[in-house]
Each structure stands twice: as C-alpha cells, then as structure tokens.
Amino acid sequence: MTGAVFVRNYAAPEWDRREILRYSSCGEASAEVEALLEECIAESTKALSYKVCFAHFPVNIYGEEIDLGFARVKSAALCKNLASCRYAAVFAATVGLGIDRLAMRYARTSPAKALMFDAIGSERVEALCDAFNAEIKAEAAKEGGFTRPRFSPGYGDLPLALQKEIFRVLSPEKYIGASLRESLIISPAKSVTAIIGIGKNN
Amino acid sequence: MDIREFLKNNVVVLDGGMGTLLQKAGLRPGEEPELWNITHADTVEKIQRSYFEAGANVVNANTFGANTVHFEREKLEEIVKAALETAKKARESACAPQPKFIALDIGPTGKMLKPYGDLEFEDAVAVFAETVRLGAKYGADLVMIETMNDSYETKAALLAAKENCTLPVFVSNAYGEDGKLMTGATPAAMVAMLEGLGADAIGANCSLGPKKLMGVVEELLENASVPVLLKPNAGLPQSDGEKTYYDVGAEEFARDVALAVKKGVRIAGGCCGTTPEYISALSQELRGVSPVPLTEKNITCVSSYTHAVRFGESPVLIGERINPTGKKRFKEALREGDMGYILNEGIAQEEKGAAVLDVNVGLPEIDEKAMLTATVCELQAVTALPLQIDTADTAAMEAALRLYNGKAMVNSVNGKEESMRAVFPLVKKYGGLVVALTLDERGIPKTAEERVEIAKKILATAAEYGIAKKDIIFDTLAMTVSADKNAALATLGALRTIRYELGCHTSLGVSNVSFGLPVRDAVNSTFFALALENGLSAAIMNPHSVEMMKTYYTFRALHGMDENCADYIEFAANMPVQTAGAAAPAPKTEGRSGKTELQNAIIKGLREKAALLTKELLKESAPLDIVQGEIIPSLDIIGKGFEEKTVYLPALLISAEAAKCAFEEIKAFVTAKGGESVKKCDFVLATVRGDVHDIGKNIVKLLLENYGFNVLDLGKDVPAENVAEAAVKTHAPFVGLSALMTTTVPAMEETIKLLRARAPWCKIIVGGAVLTAEYAERIGADKYAADAMETVRYADDVFAQING
Prior knowledge:
The structure holds two protein chains of two kinds.
Chain A: E1 6-10, H1 17-23, H2 31-45, E2 50-58, E3 60-62, E4 65-67, E5 72-74, H3 76-82, E6 87-94, H4 98-107, H5 111-142, E7 145-147, H6 162-170, H7 172-175, E8 179-180, E9 186-187, E10 191-200
Antiparallel strand pairs in A: 1-2, 2-6, 3-4, 4-5, 6-10, 7-10, 8-9
Helix pairs in contact in A: 1-5, 2-5, 4-5
Chain B: H1 3-9, E1 12-13, H2 19-24, H3 36-39, H4 41-53, E2 58-60, H5 73-93, E3 101-106, H6 121-137, E4 142-148, H7 151-164, E5 169-173, H8 187-197, E6 201-205, H9 214-223, E7 228-231, E8 237-239, E9 244-246, H10 250-263, E10 267-268, H11 276-286, E11 301-303, E12 308-310, E13 316-322, H12 328-336, H13 339-352, E14 356-359, H14 368-382, E15 387-390, H15 394-403, E16 409-414, H16 417-430, E17 433-437, H17 448-464, E18 472-475, H18 487-500, E19 505-509, H19 520-533, E20 538-541, H20 546-558, H21 566-573, H22 597-604, H23 607-617, H24 623-643, H25 649-672, E21 682-687, H26 695-706, E22 710-713, H27 720-730, E23 734-738, H28 745-758, E24 763-767, H29 773-778, E25 783-784, H30 788-803
Parallel strand pairs in B: 1-10, 2-3, 3-4, 4-5, 5-6, 6-7, 7-10, 13-14, 13-20, 14-15, 15-16, 16-17, 17-18, 18-19, 19-20, 21-22, 21-23, 23-24, 24-25
Antiparallel strand pairs in B: 8-9, 11-12
C-alpha cells in the first residue's frame, strides 16, 4: 500500500483564539481587538477548507541519510526523529486559497484585518495538521504501533528542497490545490508539508 | 474527418485512465509518465490499442504533463513526437471499426498563476503554446485540455490552443465535491468564459465518480450551448491495507455515465481508476443511445473567477464609481498611482450591493493600457465581482480582456463603422458581453425609432463577426431632460423596443438624465424605475445613492423577484438615515482623559466615527490644525504605548486605520478646494525579490502615510532594478526594504548595492523577521528598524534634519 495517495477532507477543527492572538503578536486583547478578531473569524469561516493528501512510504536509514522510497535525503535531525520507524506518512495540508484571498483583499485597505487573517490561517493550518496527525497516531496505535512528532522540510537540517520531491510524489496540486513556487514556498500560503514517522512497539 | 463533424450526429466515446495502468506496468511513484513514450513505447501503445478496441473514438496521446515546466524544449519535442507516433500506431493496429481520433492531451502545469502563485499569465500561455505547436506539428486530431482546477490556467491553455493551431479544442475541468473548481469557479462561470473563448466542447473530468459529478453535469448542460463532456473517475481510491482500488466498478460506472449521456452529455469516457474494461462497458451501454440534440441556450451573462451573473432575471447593478470623470480625488489617486484608493472604491461598492464593477481609469496624462491592466488584475485579487472594462482605447481594451479572469463586460461599441471594426474582433477572440451605444456617425438620434435602427445595424454587423445577439447589450443613451423635455421618452421608447421586439438586453448610465437639475437623486431614481418597467436589464449607477437603492429593492419586491420581500426588508433595516442637519456636535474635550472625541475615536480605532468627526471639524478648523492638533497627537499616544509594549500590534493598526480614515476626509476636502495635499517627502517601499510576505511592509506603509510621507509602494517580490528605478525617478530620500525569509536576504543585499550605485543620496531602512541590527549593517543598510514605529521615528528625525 505504499506510494498510493489518499485525500482527506476535514470539518473545521476547534478554534484556539489565544493562539491566533499570539500569531498576531498580541499579548492582551483590548475590547476593540477582540471585536476585530470575532469579525475576522466570522468572515473567514466560509472561506476555509481543510484538506490533506498523503501517502505511506518505507523508511530506510543509512548513516545520516534517509531513503523514503521516493527521495534520499541527508539530515541528522530527521534520522534521529525517524530512528526505529519502519514507515512514514508523508503529507501536504492546506486550508485553501480563500484565506489568502481575504488577506489579499484587506492588505491594502485594512492591514489590521490582513494581520488577523494571516494569524487565523496559521492557527487553522496547524490545527488541521494536528487533526490529521491524531488520526495517523490512532491508526498506528490500532496496529500496535506508535508515531513520532511530525517533521517538516526546513526544520533543523532537513533541506527545504525536499519540498520538490514531496510535491512530485504527492501531487498536491491535483488533490488539494496546493502548488510549489520556485522559491519552495507553497501556494496557498497556509499550507504545510510534513513527515510522520511510524514504528511498531515490540 | 473532423471530430466536430462526427460529433454532430454521434455520441463520442473517450478513453479511460492511463496513469494507473502505467503504474501497474511498473511506473514508479513520482516518475514522469511522459518519458515512457520513449522508454516504454510498446507498453503505452498496448494500453491505447486496448482503448480503441474497447470502443473509444478518442484516445489521448500520453502528453498530460508534456510541457516546458517539466521538460527542456528539445526533450519536449522528442516526447510529443514519440507520444503521437505511439498513439497513431495504436490506432493503426486496432481492428475496431469506429472512427478514431487522437487528442493532444494537455494537463495543468502544476504551478499556480499570479496573484496566488508565481506563474505569470503570459508565461503560462507560452508554456501551453509550445506544447500545442508540437502537437499540431506531429499530427494530433484535436486538443484535449483537461483536469484543470483553476479558471485562469484554463484560460491560458485555451487561448494558447486557439492562437497556435486550428484543431478542435475540448476543455474539461476538475470540480470538487462542492461543485466548484479549486480556485472557486462554478460550472456556469466556466461555461461563460470558455464559450466566449471558442471552446468546441466543455466538460468535467477526474476528482470524483460519475454520481458525485451529476450536479456539475446538470449545471453544465443547463448553461452550455456547445457539447458537454464527462470523464469521471472510477469513484474514490480506497485501501484494504494491501492494495488500493477505486470504489465504483465498471458496470455501475457505465450505467451512471450512460445516464448522463441520456440527459444530454455528448462526449463521455473515464479518468483515474478506469480501464479498458470500463470503456468497453460504457460503449456497450451507449449502443443505440441517440445523442440529445444541442440547443442554443441564449444566456446573456458575464463571469468572474468564481461565478456568473445573468442578465434578464433580476436587474443587474453595475457600480460606476471607478471612474475619474468629475472626481478630483479619483484623478489625484490615478496620477499618484494610489491603487489602494481605487481598490477601496471597488470594495465599498461591492458592500453596497453592486453585482458588476465598471472600471475606467482613463486620464490624458497617464498610460491607460498599463493602468487599466494593473487595475483589472489588482481588483481581481480583492473582489470576486465580474468587471466591466470601460475604455475608448482599444489597445488598452485588448490588454485588459486578455488578462481578465472570466468573461468580461466590455464598455463599449457603437454604430460607427470604425468602432465596430475595432471592438468586435476583440469580443470575438476573448469573449465578452459588449455594451452597444445606439449612436453612429450622425451622432445620437433624437427619436426612439432611429436609435432602434442603429441597434439593428449593430446586430447585423456583430453577426458578420460571429458574435451572437446574446453577447450584445444595448445602451439607448440617457440624455439630459433639462435640455430637451422629450429626452427621457426617446430613451425609454428605444429601450422598450429593443428589449421586447429585438429581444436584446439593455443597460443605461442612468444619472445623465438629471444633469443641470436640483436634487438629482430624485430624478435619477424615478427615471431608473421607469426604465426598469420598460425592460431595463442593467444600470450603471452609484450604489452609494440611497434613492437609487430604494428603487432597486422596491422594484424587485413589486416585480415578484424577492421571495417574502426578504431582500427589501433587510435593506430597509440597514437603510442609512439621511444625515443632513443631524450631525454630531463640535468635538469637545472629554472629562478626565483630556482627549478630544476625535482623539478617542482614533485611539479606539473607530473608523466611521473618526471620519465623521473629522468632517465636522473641517467646517470650522483648518485642515492642518486638525492634523497637528488632533490626529498626530493621538497617533503619538498609541505609538508610544506600542513602543512601551502596553499596546499590541493589532491595536496599533486599528488606530492607524482610523487615523487614515480621518486623513482621507482631509484629503478629499483639500482636493475639492483645489489645493495640494501636504506631504513630507517620497518614501519608496518594497518587499524584495523572491519574498511574498507583505503584511509587515503594509503596516509600515500605513504608519508612514499617517505621518505624512508619500509612500510609493512597489509591492512584493520586487526586483532590485525596479526599486532603484523608482528611487531614481522620484529622487526619494528614503527607501524601505522588507524581507522575511533567510533565503531572500541576499536579494536585499543586492538591492542595497544597486541603490548605492544608482541612488547614492537615499537612506535605506531594512526590516523583517530574519534581520538583526548587525546583519543590516553588514549588508550595507543605513538603519535597521525592528517595527513600523521605529521606521516612522527614524524617517521623521532624518526628515527634520534635512529640512531643519
């Protein structure tokens, strides 16, 4: 079953307002900022979608190099993370173009709202990753396995260039509407790729 | 035989999946299937032959991802050549008797187009053009553009096909479970755009199984006058833990697709997960099924990248405010290149209920083509409303129509030979709904009859260009009733005849009628009601006019267009109160805080209140006194709080926005009086090349503007060359550069070097998450600013020294 790409759609994960405020560099929110936050949450609800595409790949470690079947990459940090893992779930997640559109709509006309939408997008995509990650963890546990904390290209010494290989093998353009720029950042902006190591308990 | 001939009397059967079968034959995940045309031609040929044997009329050459994004030019030619040779061999060796065609298959580039991604529209056109030319050269019978999930990329592909070959072009999109494309377009919106651009068939493929695509298919059939295509997946992929499979079997698939054919689909096959077995079952199922005849749908509509707006059901409001005519403030914005002001005009009209936005940015002293295309692209990044391209400059019109994402409204053509010769070819090529003015070489006729004659002439000429009646909307020209008592009657008479006898839709620029009269709103809204009763389909009007909106909502309620009067009731509940005389009293100092009302409004970030109070203050105070005595002190209070970390960023921003609203009132007041607004000096601002984060930069811009700097915002992802050019052109004393990623700091260093060489006078301020003071010094900046306030303080100090 390795290599086959699957798509999952999610309902909106629970909102974490404190986290949104943190992303918008706001320690304590005044009444006016609270009102702005609620207004932006209401406006973004319809614009958000929660999609993940993923596939499972075998993990083979050779020194500081990891062979994931579709790519071979050198990273001490990922080696450490994936040590004892037999498989990895490689995924791409996005909350869609709608939130980018909102941020763009307000970039020139209300930087305060643009800032809020940016923060909302960051919180939403992390919440989506958490939801997907929890499922992968539960699925591994059902078969007597465990998962490792998810790891993204660009973390530690894992090259950002791995994005290219991930995009080649998952085709997120097709499945979730996310595409890679020349600069290796993803459009829509609130998208994430990551690797979740999966191992078996002995 | 041309497939269009075959299609006239037959249902066309397409092939099924290729990728899944190649994977079974050993294609590895991530490996490019197009290379197999060269390395495994036999395998590809065998699959294609089996599709012909299964009864397919059309087999796609294995060229889905064959484009210059994925391959070098020479390699690409080798691939396309091999792909078509292989498909032809499969056709020759197949013994099935049906007519057989080979399609050049064109899939998405995998890149997202600007403004959301980094691919330029014209670059996308060039990528597809290359593949199309090769496909035509090596003998494809038709072009199959498929699996596109973005309307803009679909347009680029179709335009490239039409410009680079004469083959028939089928266009198919991948719709999601919500019945829309990934970037938001509905099937109706896609039909509007693709028929306008000349697609020979329009359809849906991939993403879902046939049952789940039925809603999309029905919407396509309801809107399309060209044949509809359907090529679904074999359901959704499932896994049993060992292997993956699709959840719709061949028999069920064939039955479902045949059902769609019976509803009117004319071209049918399969996508991911389908095999020759599926196509064979489908061919069996379709045996003896006669094609549903095509019907002309006669839908008059325009579209954006999300939706279509139809004419003839409910009156369509076209917002007229993006137009410099008679508006000093708008002219100033155009001259300064103040895109933010223009975009705000668009958003404000959308919020008031406009369904289409007219876009006119013509001024004698500006480059209209550049300004119009920039405005159209920027507007399409902030609003999903369809646009009406309003210009007399046909070069500007063509450039805007080409870049427009959807089917635009075109304003305008008239009965003059010269006008029709210039405009009709553009409408034919790019699609569009064109506003036709009933005037010609002799001018505007006095009578209704003569205007109708001109309309007939315009229709006949349009037909010669291949433009259908449904794509012309007549404006019978509202003339000033104070100059001619029968003016309105002539307009209404022509309107009625054109609507009910010629069967065309109509539009009017309503407000001309009241020119020179007092209380113009009253005349306009009554005339609007009369025009609606005489068959008016759309009006170019000011959505901020309460009287006009009253007429609009009332008319809809009285004409059975408003279920339970729900829209009217909602409008009435939110109807703005007439403000004359009931304004707020002069600002007073509030008790303990010692702050004025305006200062409090700014500090709390109350935008409307800040604007209203400023308006009131302007009645008795000098603009500069308000700035110095009210606005700047409030900004200083909140700015100081931010520096002392008692006020956080969002609070600083909402105050700054309220201050901007106050400034906007002052600016409007000063320009109306014919004065120049007071500016400190120019400040060039940009996010450097490669970086697309612009939130920080926009925050700096807002605050600089509040403190009186004239900010030239070059946007994000800006090449060093453009920054230097702007600094030299304006001789700006300041340049601000932002970078948020470690990977783009080198681009910042390069920009600074170029600025030092070309604009040695300017002070360079840098900022962004990855920068530090030390790093800023190392790359040669004058100043590192940790936040927007620090930028403002620094620029203010230096400015004071220079002018000190």
